[in-house]
Amino acid sequence: MAVTEAFRFDENADLESNLTKFTTHLGLYDAALSAQLMTLYPVLRDEIYTPSTVWNAMFQAILDAEAAAARQITAPKPAATGATTAAAVPPVAGPTGWFLEGLSIEGFRGINNEGKPLELKFKSDKVNSVSAVNGVGKTSVYDAIRYAISGRLPWLEELPPGDRDGEYYLNRFHPAQTATIKLSLREMVTNQPCEIEVKRDSSGTRTVSASGTWDANAILQSLNREFVLLDGPTFQNFIAAKPQARGRTFAGLLGLSDYSRMRQALAALANTRAFNNHFGAQAHAQAQAHAQKGVNDARDALKRDHLILTGNEWGTMPLADGLAKCFSALEQIGPLRVLCAGKTFREIDVDACIEAVKAAEGGPQRERLGECVRLRQELVTLNVQAPDAERTKQLANVAKNREEAVAKTAGDVILQLYQAGAKALELPEWANASTCPLCDSAVAHDLHSHVATKLSAFTALDEATQAVGLEWNEGGWADLTGLEKLLEPDAAKRPIAALSDTAQKGMLTEAQAKDLAVWLGTLRERAGARDAALEKEQRELEKILPQSSVEVTKKVEAARRMQESLGKLDAAQTDLDREKARAGRVSRLKTFLDRASDDFGAAEAAMSKARLAAVEPVFKTNFAEMSFFGVTPEVVKRANSEDLQIRLQEFHGLANLSPQALLSESYRNAFAIALYLAAASLYGGMPKFIVLDDVTSSFDAGHQLYLVELLRKSFARPANPDGLQVILLSHDTMLEKLFNKHTGSGVWWHQRLEGNPQFAVLPQAGAVNKVRDLTISMLQAGQADFAKEGVRQYLEYRLSDLISKLRIPVPVDVAFNDNKQLAGEFLGAIDSAVKLHKAGGSLILEPAQEAGLNANMATIVGNFTSHWGTGQALAFTAPALLGVMNAIDQYCDCFTFVPNPGDPRKFYKSLSQKV
Fold this sequence. Notes:
5-stranded antiparallel beta sheet, 915 residues
């Protein structure tokens, strides 16, 4: 059926609907293959197939379709038993989207927390942020979400072999050596909860389970989208990637990752070289050429013997007519009439005919005459005309061409090296075309072009090798082994037979081809001498024997040869028909795969381009809102291509320039962030949350604020009701102050992590008490070295909390300092503020509280801060640190009061105000 309109996907339909539409489209060209391909969609989409398995399955589908057509089975229609009406069953609605409301981690990466998992809560109707200093476990939180969703940490698995031991997934201090991650999800529309638990043991075994009737693997697969987990390297890699790799990543951002994987799979199946190698195109082409030559030779032999038997040329008669005339010629010979009666030409017993002639006009001389005729004709049959002089030269020429192609390559090992190099150059690590992936050194030329040129030499070698094999078969060399065997009794001296297998494989050298040409000349001379001797003997016998006996013998021997030629014709024709039928099936499959790959690729590119058109204005708005004045970004998708080009539409008055070459790291990251956020806002899919890890690390303070405000005001819930739940992870001190400021607005939820990988990581909400309890427990057990880090964290948190609650001013260098050994500076700021208010007569503290401040400060400074801050090597004692922990609490209590009898203590509003 002719199809004129280009195939297009429905942009508003889901993948399954579009694949059904694609199947219908392909069915217009080949229904059987289209139906078979449809059954393979899941393995192609999930990349769990091998091309050979798919090719074999589709080839079998052709055979099955041919068998079904041959049987012409028509299934009888069942008799009508009365109309029944089935009640319509509405489809069960599945999840429409997921929020991440909680995360529990134990024993994974930098989070030990033996028996007390790190618990983080997230709000679906607020912007969420988590802060931690370096080394506490923030990145482990990010990695835990990634591992739970995708089942792997690519950055860890891509490390050098010695550094990517699977045990690095587990916390080295966790005694059970088992990681447990729990995701608390909530379905967006129905508000139904779902908890998914992911475990990994020391052997690397991963187990997944879900609460209720939820399908954990299906949910995790739906959450595994490119935009869900984003960090700085993701943006850097996106900008630096090759256009094709960037286009495939972008397809995932647009919700087209399944389409992209299908496109890649279909392109791999349609790859001509791989396809031909699988189906043995070269060997079968040679077999077909040999079978065709066998048919031609057999037909020529029939025509020669037909002339001897009937005295007439064969002409253009059909085979059956020619054989009928030969049968008639034999039947007219008196002694043979009885032997021909009731038989066809093929059924005539030639040996019986010979005996009949011998009986009628017999004698050993007549028998020898028949033998001479037969031997001479055998020589004619074996001494085929091909190859002639031109074909012998042609064999040497194609062998020479192959040797020249071999000289430009260096064998299969080097081929594999170049193939691996071509794949490596597509990876983001080698985005620079002048860096060699083998030695990691810079080269002066474009490696892509260099490797492509080298691989093309191997392609030329394949073609030259195939040409040698074809010439061997088409030239008739393979048919000379019989002549060689007849004329050379010593098997060790038969070079055609010895080199036949080498030549069939296309590996004959020019020197061997020239030697064979000389040997062929020798064979021709021997054949001529043998024929001359037999001809002489035949003529002597013809002089002795009656003419009738001579002629009858010639005709009977001609009949014998014709029967032999018919057998060869049948065998060669069978081989030829089989090879042609197979070639037709292979060609049918290749044509179908080419069409499937081309049409799917064009449709996927068109849909991607349409979605890009929708994303681009949002992308440009996002970039502009991050306040990069004078720069307008642009993304371009080439027609019918996976490549995604990134450009600068405007750069301070200039146009169409490269962002990689001109933009700073922060601008490049902003380019990618703006594009990712735009795509996520329009084509989010099932995950309704996005986790951003240190995405502002390359930005200055002003642009950090712009990005956070873009997220808060335009992108994230609740300001954007259709937006995503945003979870920000950061170690930036200035950003943490901004997060704390927004927390009071009611639309922001902020948490802080404290701890270390050896013991525990705890969230700020309630973490201070957990840190206090754990520290005191270790001190009571005498573990002073382990507990001192907890003392520091507890002290710094309580002092920081005091400064915040009492609105105590601190120097600028303290406010912006990311060094967390700040206890001394905090104590100094508090002491200065107390003295200032006392001097001004506005201090709200009671005299007992003032005295308590000084006493407890002396304990803190004397027993801990002075040693910690100066890095002294003196060992802390457990009793001393227990005293410090008690002094910290008493110091902070000096700034509290009891509003009413029986009420809990409250902090003063400031150093000069109670409430």
